[in-house]
């Protein structure tokens, strides 16, 4: 059941991305030939106006066929309603609308989560004790609640951080509550690589409901913050500052299934993350993706003249072929990982 929910959730996010392209194209008067939920031959279809709406058997997304938008597509070059013949600002809007739909989806889900479960707030309950740290040396444990530092009561992790750093490495008295019993320990913070003093603990978080306007603000800011983190991670992968690899649809579905098993909140949280990731990925200036098409529209606007369509088409075709090869390799890697995991 969790796997089915994960696949449907991933498919929904991709369909919403394509729905953004579709709605923008229709609003801009472009001819849309097909809107498909799923891939493959149509199981069910109907035609309304010039557009065929269909449901296909492979539930890993969908696609929108805007006339004149895809490489090597045959169309009437004199038709004013095909993609290449519409104003540049309309083409830009259609391209941006897909990633924008992913961001809007993340905002809506985030707002629902914040209303239903509340906003994350820091606690002074220790979630993790860093190995080899000052905290470990004096016996601090996960679950301990820090109630005071240096003779001052604390209720926020930022207060603990400020008081620890202000100690400049001198031993400080830390009052904790362990399983309801108060304890007092003397800890000498240690200087870490960035020159600040720390005791070596990570605090947990809890959710608390706040005002609706606060939830709206947080829901809007959250995708922006996640985008910055994702872009940094992508750059760190490229520059090899961090080790890791790409994950394909199967790997993503596996992570979503794991989140679904942990409950609705975790599943909604990963939906937000993946929705933002889809938006960020599609805005990358990689040939074949929305980001590269947006780049060409921008260059054409600056030049006030379109680049040779045949040249742009070849660039996108190369990009699409490379992306397909990467998808095959990543999918094979995901299958191998899942198989060996199951086989122990």
What does this structure look like?
This protein has 344 residues and is an alpha+beta fold. It folds into two domains: 2-117 and 243-343, no CATH class; 119-208, Pdz3 Domain (Roll). It is built from nine helices and twelve strands. A hairpin with a 5-residue loop joins strand 10 (190-191) and strand 11. It is elongated and about 80 Å long. The model has no long low-confidence stretch (mean pLDDT 85).
Provide tags for this entry.
344 residues; alpha+beta; Pdz3 Domain; 2 domains; 4-stranded mixed β-sheet; 4-stranded antiparallel β-sheet; 12 strands; elongated
Give a quick summary of the entry:
With 344 residues, the chain is of the alpha+beta class.
Layout of secondary structure:
Layout: H1 2-27, E1 32-39, E2 44-48, E3 51-55, E4 58-66, H2 88-117, E5 119-129, H3 134-137, E6 145-149, E7 152-153, H4 157-166, E8 172-178, E9 181-187, E10 190-191, E11 197-198, E12 201-208, H5 212-238, H6 249-261, H7 264-283, H8 290-303, H9 309-343
Parallel strand pairs: 1-3
Antiparallel strand pairs: 1-4, 2-3, 5-12, 6-7, 6-8, 8-9, 10-11
